[in-house]
Specification:
Helix content is 44%, strand content 10%. It has 302 residues and is α/β, with parallel strands linked by helices. Strands 2-1-3-4 form a 4-stranded parallel β-sheet. Strand 1, helix 1 (16-28) and strand 2 (32-35) form a beta-alpha-beta unit. Helix 2 crosses helix 3 (79-93), helix 5 (119-134) packs parallel to helix 7 (168-175) and helix 8 (199-215) packs across helix 10 (236-243). The relative contact order is 0.14.
Length: 302
């Protein structure tokens, strides 16, 4: 199975660990990921606040490059990038005049036919069907799955999962043998791009998320967005200051959780790159069905 992948700026820098774990589980599940050639920044949080045509041209060029390379399906691990590309394709496909204008700006033919997948959709379609036979260690942990505000919104455009109570990552955790808690902050904003300019606001918003997860007994917060991970992990000093106590609950990517269950070593998954140390409890190997059956059989005695 071959899929295209758009890494975006984060996965080549601050979210290198996410990139490593995405490719690691893809390899383990016989998925070949091919980067969109000559890709560019999607504009992230800045472009659509500054220039309308620029905010559409940047994602449109990425999609046009994917079309040119024959990549019909592309995975977008970053939730912000996923949102920008999905919204752009939706807007241009519903406005032929604007679509032609953007094609002129990027000097490429933009068809708008690419099937765009976030990483949870990729897992659901191509990883989950083969997971059971590949799991070597139960991910027997109680975790809080945090989706953030961009993976499921705007719902009318994305049409992905439940926008108030998404279950995609929760289902994956259950499949791995873990427990996904029911909690109140799974789609609340962590502060997003305010991390540099308004760190204290990020500390407050992310602090509420971390505190609620820890209060409900979660052993880790599971994410699928590099910005969410950065705010909940790297900004832990600001979070601790807001809460008034030290919180040591780690933040891991859903791909890292899968990788651990597949027996992939922590360094390959990039877990050593986190600011908050990832010290999960020992994993309990699953009991093979054959051994379960033997254990139930009565022993013949003379």
């Amino acid at each position: 199975m071959k899929l295209g992948i758009y890494p975006g700026c984060s996965l080549t820098g601050s979210a290198r660990d996410y990139n490593e774990s995405v490719f690691a589980i893809a390899k383990a599940c016989d998925i070949q990921l091919e980067q969109v050639p000559d890709w560019n920044c999607c504009g992230a949080t800045a472009a659509h606040n500054m220039n309308k045509e620029l905010s559409l041209s940047l994602p449109a060029r990425i999609l046009a490059q994917a079309e040119k390379a024959g990549l019909t399906d592309i995975v977008i691990p970053c939730a912000a990038c996923y949102s920008r590309l999905m919204v752009t394709q939706h807007e241009l496909n519903n406005d032929p005049v604007l679509k032609n204008r953007i094609s002129e700006i990027i000097e490429m033919d933009f068809k708008g036919t690419t099937n765009i997948l976030n990483v949870v959709q990729m897992i659901d379609l191509y990883v989950s069907p083969v997971l059971k036979e590949k799991i070597v260690k139960n991910f027997s942990h109680k975790v809080a799955c945090y989706y953030g505000c961009l993976m499921v919104r705007p719902y009318k455009v994305l049409q992905y999962d439940q926008h108030e109570d998404p279950q995609g990552m929760d289902n994956v955790i259950r499949l791995l043998g873990g427990t996904a808690i029911d909690w109140g902050y799974k789609v609340e904003c962590c502060g997003a791009g305010l991390t540099m300019s308004k760190t204290e606001i990020v500390g407050m918003l992310s602090g509420k998320i971390v505190k609620d997860a820890a209060r409900r007994g979660a052993q880790a917060i599971v994410v699928a967005c590099p910005m969410c991970h950065s705010n909940l992990d790297m900004r832990r000093p600001a979070i601790n200051e807001y809460i008034g106590e030290k919180m040591d609950i780690p933040v891991i990517y859903i791909t890292q959780a899968i990788g651990l269950a597949l027996g992939i070593d922590e360094k390959t998954l990039g877990l050593q790159r986190h600011f908050v140390p990832v010290k999960m409890a020992e994993y309990i190997p699953p009991v093979p069905e054959s051994k379960k059956q033997k254990a139930k059989e009565p022993t013949n005695t003379i």
